[in-house]
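[agent] plan:
  1. take the single chain provided in the ticket
  2. run structure prediction with default settings
  3. attach structure tokens to the ticket
  4. add a short note for the reviewer (M.T.)
[agent] executing step 1
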Amino acid sequence: MARRVMAWVAAGVVLTLAGSPATADNGATYQPPYAAGPSGGGAGSYTDLGEDGRVFIGRLYPVPGPLNCPPGGAYARYEVEHTLTGPVSAVTADFTEPAVDQFVFAVLSVRDADGRWLGSAQQRGPILVDDGALGVDLDPALFTGDDALEPGEVLVIQFGLEMASACPHVNGGTVRFTQLSVS
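[agent] step 2 finished; step 3 output follows
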């Protein structure tokens, strides 16, 4: 008798759990090829966004400015537009194969479609390790209240490399972004 009761209880638990609504998965993972985002730079700059997620920036500027250092450090970013299905807590860009000098930054930024900045992260070079990641934790308050982000709205996520502008220099960097995660 006790075994039958235990079997009915176990079956009830299994059926209850199976019938429970699953927690919504509001995240996504994106992999190359990514859409090209903004890129550019001043005189002597070079940028490249590869289909495999590799970013390369470089600048050769051998002439000093008469009173100040000239602007125009190189920058190149990928862009992902993520449509919200509910609240998310973090955005992470994983990278590998970096070779970044001390005047180059790996960058990640998140904003809404109206241009409101929600968070950003950067890592300054030199970066010469095997793997790394940039992460932005999103404030839970972004998904509550009068000005809350709602399902159907778009997060604009940009990630790549940018260079500080400086006096005469030769600088550059490369990194391959393997995936972008929204969780």
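[agent] step 4 note for reviewer: Residues 26-182 form a domain with the Jelly Rolls fold (CATH 2.60.120).
[agent] ticket updated
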